[in-house]
Request: fold
Amino acid sequence: MTELRCLPYGVGHADEGVCLLVQLGPYRVLLDCGLADITPLLSESQTPPADLVLCSHAHADHARGLLALHQAFPQLPIYGSEVTTQLLPLNWRSSDRQSASFCRALPWRSPVEFQEGLSAELFPAGHLPGAVAVLLTYTTPLRSYSLFYTGDFLLSNSRLVEGLPLEELRGLKPDVLIVEGTYGTARHPHRRQQENRFVDRLQQAIANQQSILLPTPTLGLGQELLMLLRSHHHFTGRDIPIWVDGTVADGCDSYLELTALLPQRRPEFCPPPTPVLGRSHPPQSASLAHQPRRDQRCPFRYHPLPCNHRLDGAADALLPVQQQSLVAAATPIGWSGQFDRVECATTDPIVIGAANPDPTQAIRG
Reply:
């Protein structure tokens, strides 16, 4: 009897990341490696933990352990979509990014055979540019066995990606289905409705002359919020400073380089790449009254935060933001993350930073 097994090293509880080892017959495939510490994957025999690795997308909770895994086993092949291969280096310090080009690109919607009888096919998963759902197939002389892994996925379209194409998946009958269910226990409003509610909260905070801190991941939501603030009719023609954490800014740079690979469904949000204005960090004693980083045609317009300042308190209005739900809470909460300090020359700045709010903090009055 052919053996099908799944050994979870991490399933996303708390901050453990996602890392699943699946076995199809004689082959072992590692699905993602979001472990901060890859020690569980190491053995005394110094043999690789799998025959190959498939990375569903470039978010840290699915990918941060890949560099350490590659350094421990340079011969272990690691695969992802073309966009993911180019976004992965953002998970590591700039000094490590030169050695982070280890991921090999696979095509969309085309089965690739890795070893005799073992193949994989990638489907767009939404959620993040380059995110994939994977159909793994193991074929024997008697029959075929299949496993479908969604990774993190999004059914609806967003400003950066199109949703998981369910029509293309109809008729699939995998023997094993591994599905992400982070937000599967609640119904969420339509994306446009969420955006309008979110903008209304921003409007209220700005009208009260409050500063707004938006903690987001390095990739995905931070760039999408910039596009929303640039395009929404409530902000059209208004000169509202938006300060962006350096890692989110790096994500903007990467997306601009990948414009040709992003969906063309909404060209007004993804115009052709334009010349990039150089980063100009002000001196420590100066206020941040500088020109936006991007020109008018660029989908990402913002001011880069200087790397020699810290923001270690709480903003007047902290709006926690989640990937599926743009509006996660109705009340500002305390803040325990680390950001660059901003000495703003205006009374209505918006700060987008690469971090996540601590849900254990008390709600502030």
